[in-house]
Each structure stands twice: as C-alpha cells, then as structure tokens.
Amino acid sequence: MNLILLGLGLSIVWLGLRTKDEIYRLGAVIGGAIFLVWGFALTASQFQVLFEAIALITIFPVCMRCMKE
C-alpha cells in the first residue's frame, strides 16, 4: 500500500508539473505532496533511512557549493 501511495504521489506531481495552467499545477503538486508524505510515513524504517541517505548524498554537493559562494 505504501509503495502505491509513493508511486501515485510521484505520478501526480509529474503530471502537475506538465500542465500549463498554474491553478491546476499548484493543486496537483500539493495533492501529490500529500500522497508522497502519506506513503513515506507508512514505509518501513529501512526504506526511510535509505531514502534519507540518498537525499543527503544528492544534496550535499549543492550545499557545499552554496557555502563557498
């Protein structure tokens, strides 16, 4: 169930970003974010730790580049 919510959330956000109208885009991204948070909260802790580690590895170089400037 949790992976279904995560997939649904990612799909809604992706479709929302492809729309041209700002109202529909905003509504879809907010709705998708709710599904993403809901699915992430229901996942196992091992998946959450893995996801957080991937996010840190991905974002860390960007943060270090911002600190140098």
Class based on secondary structure composition and strand pairing:
mainly alpha
How many strands, what sense, and barrel or not for the largest sheet? none
Number of domains: 1
Radius of gyration: 15 Å
* Fraction of residues in H or I helices: over 70%
Oligomer: single chain
Principal-axes geometry comes out as flat
**Poorly predicted segments:** none
Distance, first to last CA: 44 Å
Count every helix, treating DSSP H or I runs of 4 or more residues as helices. 3
Mean pLDDT: 85
Which properties best describe this structure?
69 residues, 3 helices
Could you describe the 3D structure shown?
- This protein has 69 residues and is mainly α.
- It has one domain.
- Helices cover 90% and strands 0% of the residues.
- The protein is built from three helices and no strands.
- Helix 1 (2-18) packs antiparallel against helix 2 (22-42).
- The longest helix is centred in the last third of the chain and has 24 residues, at 45-68.
- The N and C termini lie far apart (44 Å).
- The mean pLDDT is 85.
